[in-house]
Structures are given as structure tokens and as C-alpha cells.
Amino acid sequence: MTVLSDTQLELMRRRLADAGIDVAPTGATTADASPEPVPADGELGIAERRMWKIYELDPDSDAHNFSVLLRFGAPYTIETVVAAAERLIAASQVFGSVIEVDEDGTPRRRPAPRDGQWVTPGELWEWGSIPADAHGASLADDAAALAKVPFRLREEQPCRVRIQAHDDEVSMTLVLHHLAGDETILPPVLTALVADGSTAGAEVPTSGGTAVDSTPRTGAHADAAVRHAQSTWAAEGIRYPLSGALPDTTPEDSWLSVMGEGPGRLLSVPIDDDRVAALEAFAREVGATPNALFVVLSALTVSAQTGADDFVILVPADNRRPEETTDRVGYSGNIIPMRFTLDGQVSVADAVRQAVATVYEAMEYSSVDYGTILTALRQGGGRFPVAEIMTLVKNAPLRGVPIPAAAQVTCETIFKDIVHYPLSISFEFDEHDHVHLEIEYRTDILAEADAQRVAQIVESLVELAPQSSGKPLGELFTDVRGKAV
Fold first, then answer.
1. What percentage of the chain exceeds 70 in pLDDT?
2. What does the pLDDT look like over 343-389, one tens digit per residue?
3. SS3 call for 312
4. 42, 130 in Cβ contact below 8 A?
5. Counts of helices then strands in the chain (DSSP H, E)
6. What is the Cα–Cα distance from 482 to 101, expressed in whole angstroms?
7. To which H or E segment does residue 186 belong?
8. Do 237 and 96 reside in the same domain of the chain?
9. Cis peptide before 131 (omega within 30 of 0)
10. Buried b (16+ CB within 10 A) or exposed e, 153-179
11. What is the DSSP string of 238-262?
12. Under a CB-based contact definition with an 8 Å cutoff, are residues 186 and 428 in contact?
């Protein structure tokens, strides 16, 4: 959804031109995307190149920063936490490099100095380019202030660290630009940070989880992925689900919607363990994995909230291959658009089965990078995907991370009040396998009451869907809407 002023549109046009990105149609063309070789030292992978282009469009934005705040209790000390951070940075080509652009415009990594500094010996240690005024009154405000500083990726590494000693704990604020990775790289990174000698040989998680269970790389060609897109989520006539409106921008201007971002808020709601267990049993009944069913629940939520029965939801996935280790390859994310068509007359079980089939069909093309498909669509005169909503199923940062016995470690994600999509619906599993719902929304598009109602609809669907298998889907929606205020 494009929510940009005329001034912003013109600015985006200029930035696209400066970056050498043509939004005008010139005839569709795709390259074989099966498979892409592992990048050599210094080269960027396909997803990294896509993120670099996005970065070049607005290098002053902090929208692609993400940050976590870790708290270390006994037996950690500031010296042991600093030593772990130094080992992690020294071993990572991604964290320890800046980006340089060749004469032909190709971005590459170039190693840069990796020395941190004691700002106050024994009390405060920092690494990376950190402005002197990037501080806050409280620890949470301090972490948020650091998370909002834009990265200059041609001059500084895509990582910042601040470690502080407190009376009874040590805190670490870790800020990464998405070029260095996204939430899925946190498990191996956090494992390195919390490890001691007793966990040196422990199995390290390779991913923080994706929106759908990972699928084997099938060697799908980009041409097949584009044909699938044109017959589903990139077809004509798709409406925005929140407004029910058809796009009112030209195909050319629609490609500027990738830069849409605005002020946002986060709503977090725990989901009862018994209801999650019932939902997982329902997933087995309809032949789905729990993760796929959670994605479908988001689609049902959109329909129950808006009345839309034909719409697109964006689902992120981790495209990292086993040989693409986080020390050499940073961002490996992909976006999988899914077009859901729902029929209120069929039973809930059958409607869910059909929606699950949509999820799995879309995931067959997950090995083809989103940017490759978008380029072909744009060059063929198509428009940017008509989508406003993202859904995620993810693991909390410490889930699966082997923490030493008797050690005290917590980790929380820092929300920066800037979001890309009008609405995101996330289901997060914490380290104790509890699930909570996160609703992230743009306050310039949706009111708080809208977000609260979305959360209530999700909760009602979690409760009622497993009990309503034989009911028509429309009746389930009536029941759900009746429970939402």
C-alpha cells in the first residue's frame, strides 16, 4: 500500500534514478535462479544485494535497524561479556566489514578495524560507530536511542554493541542493520555471546525460525515463480484488504510503495497454552503443521476483520542454505506473497485445508528471491504487489540457545516505533514454548481500536476454530465477530 506524499514520491523517484533502478516497463525477463552459488569472500548474496538497493534509496533511514537488549546475571561479569563480544566480532566477516562499490556499481565487503573501546574502564564498553548523544534516561530508553541511529554502511560496520555494568547485572545492546542479517541469525549470535567452556561443543541453532516450516530447495526456476505470481498474487483485480479498494496508483508509481513506512505501535497478548494445544491438534486433523496453520489463522483474521475474501498476505522466510554461515553471509531473508481466496459456505475444516494448500503451493517457490520476481513483474509492466499485511511465525531470540547451567540471561527485542506495513500479525514461541500474539500497526493508517479488535479476533479464532470444524466458515466468522468488541 503506497502511503506517500507527493513530495516523498518525487524524492523516491530521484533516489531510484540515482540508484540506477528503472521502474518503467521494458519487457519481462528473468534469469535462472536455481541455484545461486555461495558468495565468494567479499561478494554479496542475492538477498544482500536486494537489501543494499533498498538501503541506497534512503541511507538516512533507521527502518532496517533491529536491536535486542540482553541482560546477564551471575556468573557473568562485564569482562566475560566483552570478551565474548570481541570473539564474535573477530570471527565474522559480515560484522567486521564495510561496503565498497566497484566502478561497475557492484557492492562488496571490505574488512575494517574491529577494535572496541572502554568508554569507562570496567563500566562501559562500546564497539562500532556510536554518536555521543545516543543515550537515554533508562536502560530501555538507552537501547532504543542506540537502535534509532542510521548506519553509514560505506563507512561503518553494520553492527553496534554497548555493554554496561550495573549493580547486579551486565546489559548488552546489540544493534544490527538488516544487511548483516535479520532475527533469524540471532540464535548462533546469541549462542556465541552466552557460551562458556561448558557449552563450547553444544549444537548451535542455525535459524531463529521462519513464518512457515522450511522446505527443501527444489531448484525452481525464476520463470516458473513468475508464472505462479502472475496467476495468483500478482494477477489483476486484487484489492487492498483493509480498505477494500482497488489500487489507485499507476503501475509505475506503485513500485515506490516499497518505501512506505510510518509511525507504529506494538500490541502483545499471551495465548493460553491449552488453546495452543487444541490448535495443534486441529492442525493434525486438517493435515497441516502448526506453523502453516498459524499463517492460515492470520488469513482468517483478515477476512473476519475486513470482510475480504480474496487478498494477499506477505510471509517472510529465511532463505539461508546450510553452507551460507552467518559469519560470511548476512541478510538471507525472502518474502513469500500468498493469495488467499475464502468461501464462507464451505466447512471450516475444508476452508482451512484449502488455505493450507495455498501456503504450501506458495512455499514451493521460496528458493527464488523476491527481488528476482519483482524485477520481472516490473519489467513486464506489472505493479507492486497489492498487499498491506504481513504475518510471521517466529521464535523468541533465546529459544533453542544453550544457556550454561545456573546462568541468568534474558533477551528482549527493541521496538523502534517505525513500521513498514499497515498491519503485521505475529505468533512468537518463547524459550519455554509458550506462544504470544504480537500486533504491529501503523498509527497513521489504523487506530488503536482496530488493532485491539484484530487481537480479539485472533484470540477468538484460536479458541473457536478447533471446535467448529464442521461449521460453515461464515458461521465461524459470525461467532468470532460477536466476541470482538
1. 85
2. 999 999 999 999 999 999 999 999 899 999 999 999 999 999 999 99
3. strand
4. no
5. 13, 15
6. 57
7. helix 186-194
8. no
9. no
10. beebbbbbbbbbbeeebbbbbbbbbbb
11. PPPTTT-PPP-S-HHHHGGGGG--E
12. no
Structural domains counted in the chain? 2
Helix (H, G, I), strand (E, B) or coil at 18: helix
User: Residue 70 falls within a domain, yes or no?
Assistant: yes
Classify residue 231 by burial, with Cβ atoms within 10 Å: 0-12, 13-18, 19+: exposed
Distance (Å, whole) CA 354 – CA 313: 15
Statement to judge: residues 184 and 231 lie in one domain: no
Distance CA 367, CA 457 (A): 33
Q: Are 82 and 120 in contact, with CB atoms under 8 Å apart? A: no
189, 246: one domain:
no
Using DSSP, state whether 282 is helix, strand or coil. Answer: helix
Domain assignment present for 146:
yes
Report residue 314: phi and psi, to 5°: -95, 135
Q: In the numeric block, which cell numbers belong to residue 329? A: 553471509
Q: 338 and 226, same structural domain?
A: yes
CA distances from 176 to 39, 96, 181, 185 (A): 21, 12, 7, 10
SS3 sequence of 378-414: HHCCCCCCCCCEEEEEEECCCCCCCCCCCCCEEEEEE
Total-model pTM: 0.88
Q: Write b or e for each residue in 3-33: b if 16 or more Cβ atoms lie within 10 A of its Cβ, otherwise e.
A: ebeeeebebbeebbeeeeeebeeeebebeeb
Contact by Cβ (8 Å): 30, 96? no
Q: What gap in Å lies between CA 366 and CA 379, rounded to an integer? A: 21
Looking at the fold, whether 187 and 242 belong to one and the same domain comes out as: no
DSSP letter string over 77-142?
-HHHHHHHHHHHHHH-TTTTEEEEE-TTS-EEEEE-----EEEETTTEEEES---TT---SSHHHH
List 66's β-bridge partners, or say none.
176
- Determine phi and psi for 366, rounding to 5 degrees: -70, -20
Distance between CA 441 and CA 420 in Å, rounded? 9
In-domain check, residue 444: yes
Point out the least confidently predicted range of 89-93, 241-245, 300-304, 417-421. Answer: 417-421
Tell which residue, 109, 111, 81, 116, has the closest CA to residue 190: 81
User: At 177, phi and psi to the nearest 5?
Assistant: -85, 150
Q: Is the dihedral of CA 176, 179, 181, 182 positive or negative?
A: positive
Q: Provide the domain limits for residue 468.
A: 222-396+415-483
Provide the grid cell at 450: 482496530
Tell me, what CATH number does 169's domain have? 3.30.559.10
| Residue range 110-156, pLDDT digits in tens | 999 998 999 999 999 999 999 988 898 899 999 999 999 999 999 99
Asked if residue 254 and residue 168 are part of one domain, the reply reads no
